[in-house]
Automatic annotation (TrEMBL), chain A:
Family: Belongs to the CbiM family.
Any single GO CC term annotated in Swiss-Prot or TrEMBL for this entry: ATP-binding cassette (ABC) transporter complex
Membrane topology: Multi-pass membrane protein
Name recorded for this polypeptide: Putative cobalt transport protein CbiM
Main location: membrane
One example of a Gene Ontology biological process annotation: cobalamin biosynthetic process
Oligomer status and interactors: Forms an energy-coupling factor (ECF) transporter complex composed of an ATP-binding protein (A component, CbiO), a transmembrane protein (T component, CbiQ) and 2 possible substrate-capture proteins (S components, CbiM and CbiN) of unknown stoichimetry.
UniProt GO MF annotations: cobalt ion transmembrane transporter activity
Compartment annotation: Cell inner membrane; Cell membrane
Pathway(s) per entry: Cofactor biosynthesis; adenosylcobalamin biosynthesis
Native source species: Methanothrix thermoacetophila (strain DSM 6194 / JCM 14653 / NBRC 101360 / PT) (Methanosaeta thermophila)
InterPro entries: CbiM, CbiM/NikMN
Sequence intervals crossing the membrane: 12-29, 80-101, 108-127, 133-153
From TrEMBL, chain B:
Any one biological process term the GO annotation gives: cobalamin biosynthetic process
InterPro entries: CbiN
Membrane topology: Multi-pass membrane protein
GO MF entries: cobalt ion transmembrane transporter activity
Main location: membrane
Protein's recorded name: Cobalt transport protein CbiN
Organism classification: Archaea, Methanobacteriati, Methanobacteriota, Stenosarchaea group, Methanomicrobia
Gene source species: Methanothrix thermoacetophila (strain DSM 6194 / JCM 14653 / NBRC 101360 / PT)
Amino acid sequence: MHIMEGFLPHPWWEIWFAASLPFVAYGVSRISRMAREQRETLPLLAVAGAFIFVLSSLKLPSVTGSCSHPTGTGIGAILFGPWITSVLSTIVLLYQALFLAHGGLSTLGANVFSMGIAGPVVGYLIYRATQRFNLYFAVFLAAALADLATYLVTSLQLALAFPAADGGVLLSLKAFAAVFAITQVPLAGIEGVISALMFKYILQARSDVLIRLNVISKPDLLRLQGGAT
Amino acid sequence: MKGEVIALASILVFFVAFLWTSQSGLHEWEGADAKAEGVIEEITGGSYTPWLQPLWEPPSSEIESLFFSLQAAIGGLIIGYFLGYYRRKAGEGN
């Protein structure tokens, strides 16, 4: 979903930088507060960041005949919310822009917005809305839709910058979504399943931290553990 | 156990779907990013040239895959280390 270096004309790259900056800045302040007050959550923060690292390095072939990669931002969004996840995504996107020439520095703002903000916001809201039905299904849905939302926003960003001569933004959106969003549907499903599994391992290891982070409630945890035995 | 089974089953379905599509028709399996570049060219009639080039590009696909595997390895190490650390801590508590 990276928009390549130099592929967003003025004024779009500036606009997306301006849109992303406050989010990332607030995320940094949230992380530094967490580092002071809730040190036991830091290893989990590292795990959430590393999860984005791993998943966004996997280029998977999709049934449409092209390759794309999952984003891995769903877990971060569920555990820490979208602000902190935007910081984690920025780190990954910087790595890929500098060492792999995937994405770019001029398009960093746009890429952070789609992968670090839009996707995680969607994932967070979906998780909050569905968690009382079935926890793991909520994680699956949140991660899958966060992934899909990221690619839809990328398509929109490109469509806004490159409206078709006749047909305008809408026609361009269709063309870009055909490349990005359709390819992404099966990958989003896989990402959802893997995220749910990851969430299970985190839950087994440190359910106490998840309660402190307000990710799950104590009664829900007891019910889940009761159901497991 | 149930979670692992579901995950394995869906990865298997994904893999079979890949095998099936790669047998029918010609697919290049190129990156979606590159395909989007093609769409930009189509829409603008080839008039758009990127105004900035990447500072550094991996000189070959071998070196590119080096950095991709590094990325995955770093992530995998961190996940394994901290989940192991948490497990050990949980074990000590009992």
